[in-house]
Design a protein that fits this description.
Layout (H helix, E strand, L loop, with lengths): L9 E7 L6 H10 L9 H6 L6 H11 L6 H17 L2 E8 L1 H5 L5 H19 L2 E9 L4 H11 L8 E5 L11 H9 L3 E6 L5 H9 L5 E4 L7 H9 L4 E3 L1 H6 L11 H6 L4 E3 L4 H4 L3 H11 L4 H13 L5 H14 L1
Parallel strand pairs: 1-2, 2-3, 3-4, 4-5, 5-6, 6-7, 7-8
The structure holds adenine and zinc ion.
């Protein structure tokens, strides 16, 4: 694989901003906010990032997020990620944030969203990285808590474009959140949901049919249901696949066994994303390089992945065309 295929213009569609908290920043923010961390060093934090499954990661991810306290903290976190985007040819990004991770420990919702959106505005102006925000509900919490979060967010509705569903998948099917997704769509928001990361194909069907999602986050378990694969292909419902995440969380044992190439060959609209880059070993370029090294991807596959990232985005058709032309020019 030539390096220029790693430098194609791309969009990222599956990144949890809290998951971009690098250990160095975790220490800096802990010190700034007068908090103690249960680690002696940055190296000790990194050494702790050995996960058996999604939940073992989430436990550390929620603990790490406790250092985020002020609007400046959320700004700095988001800005650092946007600088990575600019360095890695990510021209557009649609970012998840988890308000409940913060409001449940007493951080006001405006502190979170003001810090993030100020950085997004500066990222557009100073780095040329365009962006959108997706508000995620934590599925291990109640449907009522999700509805209360949506209500609290509605006055800021011009700051986010979609709602999503993340956190512990097993035992928390999309159907649990049908009412809040109905409400969000009635308020004009697009919808996405994590499904088929650890959960069964049935959860992907529920996300499609009950939550009426525009994209499936992860979705790699769709291959267990041929009718579902047909549906996803026919409607070109994008899958935001996260290769390094899937290895770190033991969804696949090695990258060589990842089904991304198979999904592409089935004609599905696959995109590559970093999920929680500070925890899983890398951002977009590291994910692209890892799949290029381990899977029999052709140069055309790599170009398709770059094109799909824009096709699957929530940009306007006109903006998509502009970015697709930029991909064509770079190949
Ligand atoms: N929150 C952050 N990363 C996640 C993932 N990979 N799956 C579900 N929830 C998450
Ligand atoms: Zn995710």
């Amino acid at each position: 694989m030539t390096t220029n295929l790693l430098t194609l213009p791309k969009a990222e569609l599956h990144i949890h901003i809290e998951g971009s908290l690098e250990p160095e920043m975790m220490f800096a923010l802990a010190q700034r906010n007068g908090l103690a961390l249960p680690y002696d060093s940055v190296e000790a934090v990194r050494a702790a990032y050995q996960f058996e499954h999604l939940q073992s990661f989430l436990d550390l991810y929620y603990a790490g997020a406790r250092v985020l306290q002020t609007e400046q903290d959320f700004y700095d976190l988001t800005w650092a990620y946007l600088e990575k985007c600019a360095a890695q040819f990510v021209r557009h990004t649609e970012i998840f944030f988890d308000p409940q991770t913060h409001t449940d420990r007493g951080i006001p919702f405006p502190v979170v969203i003001d810090g993030i959106t100020a950085a997004l505005r500066d990222g557009q102006q100073r780095l040329g990285v365009s962006s959108g925000l997706i508000l995620c509900f934590l599925r291990h919490l109640s449907a009522e808590a999700a509805m209360a979060t949506l209500e609290e967010a509605l006055p800021y509705g011009d700051r986010f474009l979609a709602v999503g569903l993340d956190s512990s998948e097993m035992g928390h099917p999309p159907s649990k959140f049908q009412a809040v997704f109905d409400r969000a769509r009635a308020e004009g928001f697009l919808t996405v949901a994590h499904a088929g990361e650890e959960g069964p194909p049935e959860y992907i069907w529920e996300a499609l049919k009950l939550l009426k999602v525009s994209r499936i986050d992860h979705g790699v378990r769709c291959v267990e249901d041929p009718a579902l694969v047909d549906f996803l292909g026919e409607h070109q419902i994008p899958l935001t696949v996260c290769p390094l995440s899937n290895i770190k969380l033991c969804v696949f044992d090695t990258m060589a066994h990842h089904n991304l190439k198979h999904l592409l060959d089935l004609g599905l609209c696959v995109t590559v994303n970093s999920d929680d880059p500070a925890y899983f070993g890398g951002y977009m370029t590291e994910n692209m390089a890892a799949i290029a090294a381990a899977l029999p991807l052709t140069p055309e596959d790599m170009i398709t992945l770059a094109q799909n990232s824009f096709r699957a985005s929530f940009l306007s058709d006109e903006q998509k065309q502009t970015f697709l032309q930029a991909v064509a020019q770079a190949t």
